[in-house]
Amino acid sequence: ELIEKLEEVVMIWTKQIRQVLVESEQIRREADDAGPSAELEHWKSRMSSFSSLLDEIKSPRVKKIISILQAARSKTLKQWKELDSSITIAANEAKDNVRYLYTLDKFFGPLANGSPVIVMEHIPSLIHTVCMIYCTSPYYNTSEHMTSLFLKITNQMINTCKTYLCEG
């Protein structure tokens, strides 16, 4: 009876974790003119969510329940292990992407607040840094991520130029 109750709890957790994973994979809705700092904020938020979830999964209470079910050779653990692995991968991806995107942080200020001349001065270094991310990041080096990042950089450049023209 205890094993059945614990299996029910694990199945509820499994369903909740699956929901988090599904939601994290959905296309995100952003403003049409979102800048590159929005990309960093997205990954920071995702890193926080998945790190918290990992902390919960690794808590003594959860570990105790899982070890009891392992001793009972519960069938629910196969799904649990797959989800645990998926959460770990998602947390590692988010953490890694934040680390790489932070290398662009020094460009966000000049890109958002500088004149078009200042923006132009920073573009070669910015592009070089983006290329380094593409070449070295195990997760962020997809065309989807790069396209999203370049779109946000372009948006920021356009917004900066609009602001400059309207103030001039």
TrEMBL record:
Pfam families on file = DHC_N1 (PF08385)
Instruction: Please give a single GO biological process term from the UniProt record.
Output: microtubule-based movement
Q: Name one GO cellular component term.
A: axonemal dynein complex
Task: Tell me the InterPro entries matching this sequence.
Answer: DHC (IPR026983), Dynein_heavy_tail (IPR013594)
Task: Please report the stretch or stretches of sequence annotated as the Dynein heavy chain tail domain.
Answer: 3-166
- Superkingdom per UniProt: Eukaryota
| Molecular functions per Gene Ontology | dynein intermediate chain binding; dynein light intermediate chain binding
Protein name as it appears in the record: DYH5 protein
